[in-house]
TrEMBL record, chain B:
Protein name (Swiss-Prot/TrEMBL): Phosphate transport system permease protein PstA
Chief site of localization: membrane
Alphabetized InterPro entries for the sequence: MetI-like, MetI-like_sf, Phosphate_PstA
GO cellular component: plasma membrane
Coiled-coil ranges per UniProt: none
Pfam families tied to this protein: BPD_transp_1 (PF00528)
An MF annotation (GO) of this entry: phosphate transmembrane transporter activity
Residues of the ABC transmembrane type-1 domain: 85-293
Keyword presence, Lyase: no
Gene encoding the protein: pstA
Upper taxonomic lineage: Bacteria, Bacillati, Actinomycetota, Actinomycetes, Micrococcales
Length: 322, 304
């Protein structure tokens, strides 16, 4: 019996030791994080689009080198989910891959939340095909709509239906799933109505799966952010898009100057005005974010702002503290 | 056909299972069954091995100190898991503190004191058994609803995550504790009672200490399952990026599986590499925890 209790005691002791170890680790971390060297402290909470999140993460990452005492958190509830939290006053900044919608404006107004919209980077959607595809170099928006429109469901299944000059090659389609800002944006830009798209394509929230799908099928076509094209140059080829004023290849420059239409877009952050005026750490963070947008955009594989966009953002922020 | 099966049978017998296949078990059907068993073992083990090896190859380059000491970053070369590791420790630690006493107490009640003839106790038993098989995301939804009911605005805090994972771990702990209690011979209880101990003293001084190895094993296995979970935490709106070390029950946090999930959804190949390295680290921790559970079981378990 004494042996038994000895064993029991030693187990209890080791469990206790493990618990103490956990506590010790925790205690240690408390020390490092609440010990800013005479810098700012407090928190900055960001939620919203998973498209924009890499930008905010990159900004927070760079900001840590400047103000290590400020706790920046980024969550990805999606643009809509982000606005829900933002308009309830739960977050300081909302990442958005589209401008705020009317019903979201109303929600913010009801809750008494005033905000400022800032264009923080530019993003291009690219239409991609298999590298072996040697016929589709440039497609018009009309042709893209023929391929992707809701009316084409089950009917347009071959490239030669898009243009008789195209070969007899079966069409297989990959793209963003309905939850992503990319999906909202592509459907609005190409099919004229947000959410309108044929349902017989392979949707995925993970753009890497789209890359795999398109690279594995000669007749495949897909769409996603421009950064994925540059990261996966060997596997897929981006095509030119004719938005009515000639064929334009998606590059940083054509997106930034607005010539790559209609698939070039701006990405936004929304800032809570009251919080911006009150919280010094938020103010410092946003100012840093906008000031270093080029570095941030590069780190997050997006396209930076034009001088004009940057000046506009800085001017608007300046009025908030007045 | 007969020739083939006898040939196969002879072959199988010669391979390490001699003695297990005896007499009537040496029929064509039982040999076929054995072949299927070996095949399924081979397939599942092969898939696991392939997965581990490819992950190891992908992540080997980044399996270094930076992974543990650095904060996450968009610059892959300076990115690490530090807040995620600390976040995991915090959340799992709080989960353990919340669930182990509660789970053990519930199991003791159900096993030692509850009247099994009452329908309510049978319903509770049935529910505990069922809960252990519920998909983890459901616990996330439950915790989300619970926190919303309490009026908690910011749900991605350590205590919130610990609640969700606690719900997940609780049935495992209850069931394993009951198993452990059940394996303590009734003679020990009777002996204790015969010497004049009260039922409570019997549980506290005899039954419970004797079942600690089983409880510890179950708790570690339950917690290691919780450590690998991302879904219930994502439902709570888990943070994908945290630039600081979590430092309390109300602190924001991220955990290793969430960080891995975040990295794999990025376009940069380097971040995928990092995700692989992080997966290996997580796998290592899980193997260590399970190893500890096996060690405790083998070292301390009583054979009555």
């Amino acid at each position: 019996m004494s042996l038994l209790s000895f064993k029991t005691a030693s187990i209890s002791a080791s469990v206790l030791a493990a618990t103490l170890l956990l506590t010790a680790c925790g205690g240690q971390s408390t020390g490092t994080s609440t010990d800013p060297e005479a810098g700012l402290s407090g928190s900055v909470t960001i939620d919203g689009s998973s498209t924009v999140a890499p930008l905010s993460e990159a900004a927070a990452d760079l900001f840590r080198d400047v103000e290590p005492g400020v706790n920046v958190t980024v969550a990805t509830s999606g643009t809509g989910g982000g606005f829900k939290a933002f308009c309830a006053g739960e977050t300081d900044i909302s990442d958005a891959s589209r401008p705020i919608k009317d019903e979201e404006i109303a929600a913010c107004k009801t809750a008494g939340i005033e905000y400022t919209e800032i264009v923080i980077a530019n993003d291009g959607l690219s239409v991609v095909v298999n590298p072996e595809n040697d016929w589709a170099k440039c497609l018009t928006v009309e042709q893209l709509k023929t391929i992707w429109g809701p009316d084409s469901e089950g009917k347009i299944t071959n490239w030669n239906q898009v243009d008789p000059a195209f070969p007899d090659q079966e069409l297989s389609l990959f793209g963003a799933g309905t939850d992503s800002g990319t999906f909202d944006y592509f459907t609005a830009a190409i099919n004229g109505e947000e959410g309108a798209i044929r349902t017989d394509y392979s949707p995925s929230e993970d753009d890497n799966i789209t890359v795999q799908g398109v690279s594995g099928d000669k007749g495949a076509m897909g769409f996603f952010g421009l950064s994925y094209v540059e990261e996966n140059k060997d596997a897929i080829t981006a095509i030119e898009v004719d938005g009515g004023e000639g064929c334009v290849y998606p590059t940083s420059e054509t997106v930034q100057d607005g010539t790559y239409q209609p698939l070039g877009r701006a990405l936004y952050i929304y800032v809570n005005n009251a919080a911006y005026a009150e919280k010094e750490q938020l103010r410092t963070f946003i100012d840093y974010y906008v000031e270093n947008e080029a570095k941030v955009a590069e780190a997050a594989l997006f396209i930076g702002l034009t001088d004009e966009q940057k000046t506009k953002a800085q001017d608007e922020l300046a009025t908030l503290v007045g | 056909m007969t020739l083939l099966t006898t040939g196969l049978g002879a072959h199988i017998r010669s391979a390490s299972i001699r003695g297990k296949v005896k007499g009537g078990e040496n029929s064509a059907r039982s040999i076929l069954f054995l072949v299927i068993l070996w095949l399924s073992l081979f397939v599942s083990f092969g898939v696991l091995l392939t997965l581990i090896i490819t992950t190891l190859i992908d992540g080997a380059d980044r399996l270094d100190a930076r992974l543990i000491t650095e904060f996450p970053s968009s610059a892959p070369e300076r990115a690490g898991l530090r807040p995620a590791i600390l976040g995991s420790i915090w959340v799992i630690g709080v989960t353990a503190v919340l669930t182990i006493p509660l789970g053990v107490a519930a199991a003791i009640h159900l096993e030692e004191f509850a009247d099994r003839k009452k329908w309510i106790n049978r319903v509770i038993e049935l529910n505990v058994q069922n809960l252990a098989a519920v998909p983890s995301i459901v616990y996330g939804l439950l915790a989300l609803g619970f926190l919303a009911l309490l009026g908690v605005q910011n749900k991605n805090i350590v205590i919130g995550g610990a609640l969700a994972l606690g719900l997940l771990v609780l049935p495992v702990i209850i069931i394993s504790t009951r198993e452990a209690l059940r394996s303590v011979p009734v003679e020990i209880r009777q002996g204790s009672l015969a010497l004049g101990a009260t039922p409570l003293q019997t549980v506290w001084r005899q039954t419970l200490p004797a079942s600690v190895p089983g409880i510890a094993t179950g708790a570690i296995l339950g917690l290691s399952r919780a450590l690998g979970e991302a879904a219930p935490l994502l439902v709570l709106g888990a943070l994908v990026f945290v630039s600081f070390d979590p430092n309390g029950l109300l602190s924001g946090y991220t955990t290793m599986p969430i960080q891995i999930f975040n990295w794999t959804s990025r376009p940069q190949a380097e971040l995928h590499e990092l995700a692989s390295a992080a997966s290996i680290l997580l796998l290592g921790i899980l193997i260590a925890m399970n190893g500890l559970a096996i060690f405790i079981r083998n070292r301390y378990q009583q054979r009555w």
